[in-house]
Design brief:
Elements (H helix, E strand, L loop, with lengths): L8 H8 L3 H18 L6 E5 L14 E6 L9 E4 L13 E7 L1 H4 L3 H11 E12 L4 H12 L13 H10 L2 E9 L8 H6 L3 H8 L6 E8 L28 E2 L7
Parallel strand pairs: 1-2, 1-4, 2-3, 4-5
Antiparallel strand pairs: 3-8, 5-7, 6-7
Length: about 260
């Protein structure tokens, strides 16, 4: 049995991030998340799952949380524990930004997770989604691995194509406004070969941009007939913390990421 097969799906992703390919993918995602979140403003931001990624470290909102099923060993932000990402412990229309690193691929009901994200986002709030691209060399290797038992990526991930994800977001009135593909190296298992293939990053970006192993999609929640006047987040800022249900157990860590 593969080392990831016996683990909880989302936890198996955390184990995979410790592999050479996982470290390569995590570095690319971290750099893109830093770029995308740095200039998103508001009061309240949440990252759902994957504490191996510091998806909000570059963001300057005053209230930032990580929502996960278990307490990370060294959390660098407030942690809100939840057992189901399909029932988020936040009030409706209370968040300015939600980061979803690979959550949909390992969720039993990805549509419900997206519906919850739409619920908790305020109008014009943003969501950033990270995913594995099935239309890539890594995706093909994963399909072959399911037949041979030699899995390159975590076994239980149901990888979602970008067109399919866009359709899901459109049904929820979420408008995609930005996207990135990356990690064009072949599915190599060692750091040595991944480094040797580093030149393919620029080449892939130029010649086959839609075949990167990973993608990041950014979308905005639109509300029909609504016109924002003045600072968009001013009316909600003071109420967001009280939007957390009292029954949810919150744990915090005073150390912050630099």
């Amino acid at each position: 049995m593969n080392q990831y097969e016996s683990e909880n799906p989302i936890i198996s992703l955390g184990s995979w991030f410790d592999t050479p390919a996982g470290s390569y993918a995590r570095a690319w995602e971290q750099a893109r998340l830093d770029e995308l979140t740095a200039d998103i403003f508001g009061y309240n931001a949440v990252q759902i799952g994957s504490p191996q990624l510091a998806g909000l470290v570059a963001n300057r909102m005053p209230n930032k949380w990580l929502t996960d099923a278990v307490l990370p060993q060294n959390p660098g932000q407030h942690v809100v524990l939840t057992h189901d990402f399909g029932e988020l412990p936040f009030a409706s229309n209370s968040l300015d930004l939600v980061v979803l690193p690979h959550v949909l691929e390992f969720a039993s009901e990805p549509h419900q997770v997206l519906r919850e994200v739409e619920r908790v986002l305020r109008p014009e709030g943003q969501v950033i989604i990270c995913g594995f691209n099935p239309a890539s060399m890594w995706g093909v290797r994963q399909v072959a691995g399911r037949l041979t038992g030699a899995h390159f990526l975590p076994l239980h991930g149901e990888f979602i194509s970008v067109p399919r994800l866009k359709d899901w977001l459109k049904l929820l009135n979420m408008e995609v406004n930005r996207g990135h593909f990356g990690c064009y190296a072949p599915p190599c298992a060692t750091s040595k070969w991944l480094q040797r293939c580093a030149f393919m990053e620029k080449a892939g970006n130029r010649w086959w941009p839609y075949l990167g192993a990973l993608y990041i999609v950014q979308a905005i929640k639109r509300v029909k007939g609504m016109r924002l006047v003045g600072p968009a987040w001013q009316p909600i800022g003071a109420r967001a913390r009280s939007g957390l249900p009292a029954t949810n157990k919150m744990k915090s860590n005073t150390d912050q990421h630099g």
